[in-house]
Design goal:
The protein is mainly α. It has helices at 2-6, 10-17, 24-34, 44-50, 74-89, 94-106, 108-128, 141-144, 148-163, and strands at 59-60, 63-64, 166-170, 173-177.
């Protein structure tokens, strides 16, 4: 029955199945929960907000408040969580690298939400344009975008603040200058 119901949306299901971590079943679940008409969402952020997959901060006067979880669509959340977890386990791919990068800083649960947010953004763009194809940016996307000179200057400034010694960067080499006593 599901195969018969999804046949009018076979092209959209194929588009969504290209996403790292998603397969034909996940594509069918996404189409069932979100639909294929993205005209009702002005932007990808509106879709993410509608699905209640936005990052949340409940803080007042520096104290974190426990407000509970936002009540979104549990079936869509489960599908997005499965896609994010599968992408995280895969060695290659932008979504897996994004999940691992955020999980190191914020923890695995926040990384699942952030990766699900990215997946929803990809879904919006794929369903908005019938000719769009998913193109994975690659696992090294974040590392290739780092300006090495800027990073070296930043680290030198942090080291200088800790040690109190003058540190300069010349030709990719850190030079520690002795200060006169």
């Amino acid at each position: 029955m599901v195969e018969q119901a999804i046949t009018p949306f076979a092209h959209q299901a194929q588009q969504l199945a290209q996403i790292t971590g998603a397969g034909p079943i996940a594509a069918q679940e996404i189409i069932a929960e979100v639909g294929v008409d993205m005209a009702r969402f002005p932007s990808a952020a509106h879709l993410v907000s509608w699905a209640k997959f936005c990052p949340q901060t409940h803080e007042s006067a520096g104290k974190k408040k426990n407000k509970g979880r936002a009540k979104g669509n549990p079936w869509l959340a489960a599908t997005l969580g499965n896609i994010a977890a599968t992408a995280a386990r895969s060695g290659a791919g932008f979504l897996g690298a994004r999940h691992r990068r955020i999980a190191r800083r914020r923890g695995p649960q926040k990384a699942i939400v952030a990766t699900g947010n990215s997946v929803l953004t990809i879904i919006y763009h794929l369903l908005s344009d019938p000719t769009a194809q998913f193109n994975d940016l690659g696992a090294d996307y974040f590392t290739t975008r780092i300006d090495r000179n800027r990073r070296a200057r930043s680290l030198a400034a942090a080291l200088q603040a800790v040690t109190g010694q003058k540190i300069t960067i010349r030709d990719g080499q850190a030079i520690i200058e002795a200060q006169a006593a």
